[in-house]
Design goal:
With about 230 residues, the protein is an alpha+beta fold. The protein contains 4 helices and 14 strands. The two termini are about 30 Å apart.
């Protein structure tokens, strides 16, 4: 049964502060609007295909980087601007003008989804384990169709993915939710379980905070720790 609404005022205040901190972090990392290496021709040459939704720039001990989020935005609804396809790519900025791709992801809405979009306020660009390298965290959500003209935005509907890149390796958490406890499931790929413990714990705390803030109804049967994906998935 749902417990998300039974929260003490103090807990809500703390969560709101945490959410603001995440938003501020993303804001501090937004790229300059006039950065020449992010112009239309430069992005085309770099192979970024979708309209750019967000641009983040950061520097760590290995160099300077630009993280781009793209959404097709071909499925507009009254409550959310959704897409059939989303894309993200990290580029190293060489010499302040040349983009060299480090990694890229692309995902698609399922047949029962109204669409998909990035949750930009949940993006994180921090060095979680103190190795001097930023560990980008991306979050995007799948919204189910109610009928041909509407979607459900309830936090106990649809699915969500959390993707983290640690030293260039992608770890993915995939969660689906529902009104009943048995409908909810959170799994992760093998790369998640190979992450340093401090990084795994950071992601678990992130899911718990999202649940308590009413951002997504994760399964909390195991204190938000994901289960291993089934073999062959």
């Amino acid at each position: 049964m749902r417990l998300k609404k039974i929260l003490a005022f103090a807990s809500l205040s703390l969560l709101a502060a945490g959410s603001s901190a995440q938003t501020a972090e993303a804001g501090r990392n937004e790229c300059p609007a006039n950065a020449p290496y992010l112009g239309a021709e430069a992005l085309k040459a770099a192979g970024f295909e979708l309209p750019v939704f967000k641009r983040y720039c950061y520097t760590d001990k290995s160099g300077s980087y630009a993280l781009l989020l793209g959404e097709k935005q071909d499925r507009p609804f009254h409550s959310e601007q959704l897409s059939s396809t989303v894309q993200a790519a990290l580029y190293k900025v060489d010499g302040g003008k040349v983009l060299t791709r480090q990694w890229a992801i692309r995902d698609f809405a399922g047949k029962d989804d109204g669409g998909i979009n990035f949750r930009s306020k949940l993006v994180e660009l921090n060095d979680i384990d103190g190795d001097g390298l930023v560990d980008p965290i991306l979050v995007y959500r799948f919204f189910p169709l109610v009928d041909t003209d509407s979607i459900s935005t309830d936090d106990f509907s649809g699915g969500i993915k959390i993707v983290i890149f640690h030293r260039g390796r992608k770890a993915t958490i995939h969660a689906i939710t529902g009104d009943l406890d048995g409908d909810r499931k959170t799994t992760a790929n093998s790369n998640y379980f190979a992450l340093p413990k401090v990084v795994q714990q950071h992601l678990v705390k992130k899911m718990a905070a999202m649940y308590k803030a009413g951002q997504f109804g994760f399964d909390n049967s195991y204190d938000f720790v994901p289960r291993k994906e089934a073999a062959g998935r």
